[in-house]
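U., I forgot to send this yesterday:
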Amino acid sequence: MSRSPRIGKGTHGAGRFRLGTAPGAVRVVFPADIRPNALLAFEVTSADSVVTMTLLSTWILALLPALPVQTVADDEMPDGNKLVQIALLADKGAVKPGGTLTLAVRYAIEPKWHVYWENPGDSGMATRANITAPAGWKVGALRFPAPQRHEDEGDITTYIHERELVLLADVQVPADARPGVAAITVDGRWLVCTDICVGGEGQAKVDVTVADVETPANEALFKAAREKLPKPWSELPQARVTWSGTEAEPRVTIVVPGAKSLEFFPLDTEAMKCKGRTVDAGKNGATLKAQFEFERKQPEDQPRTRGVLHVKTGQGETSYLFDSLYTAPPTGR
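Result:
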């Protein structure tokens, strides 16, 4: 088995980093026998043995020449392939031709470590899963539960998952599927972090029987996973959304009567990026204000923001899918 990429303080002088190719980026050396799939996880698409990482602040760059050269031995770095264990499960042991089933990609994460949401935030890398099903089987988009907000020194905000992450994807079975056992596989890639970060990858498989009679499977796991998925915005009818600012610097205000706290997890695009948020809660509810930057890079780009709003009330916590297009406020606002 090849070794995972080794990324730590001794490797590049910073515990947190961004992937990128910005000026001043430093090079991180990977093991010579690293698997190509692991390189792809770090957006290296050839057999190169290095990937660039941008240090988080310019003062670190200024200090970099004075840092002592350190060599991190393999036995000093944890193995990212072992810190996270990947499994693939189905909600049906048997499915009819033309039927549907749901897959769960489960990442079991070592305590005190975390992986990242589909938008990792200011650093990190999105957790990825590539599902391969038999020809003619249609696999839908992966659905993430809401993450946790994690803040580090230097105003670094990331969106993370601890202990366990379960992604769901629906599968449409073709009407002409032949009876018998069908194999479905997943290839997962992740970045797992604590005070250091290491990359990891793993594969898993599940067999599903095509038959005339369907049978359920893994009911408790799927019930819990579905409950954690964000609900449609229509299920939060009391929420009020107001836009202000300009198209280039739009601001949105979300008011939820009766809420004790709110949190927003943005799904940024190249054109629309969240620059920060504030939350205020009182006895009548909670208010969240988020600031964005919009730059039209393609003619079809719009100042639209998508994300997940997490709402805490006296009855519990629920997340909702948020999708809203900036509308210019009346003159004078």
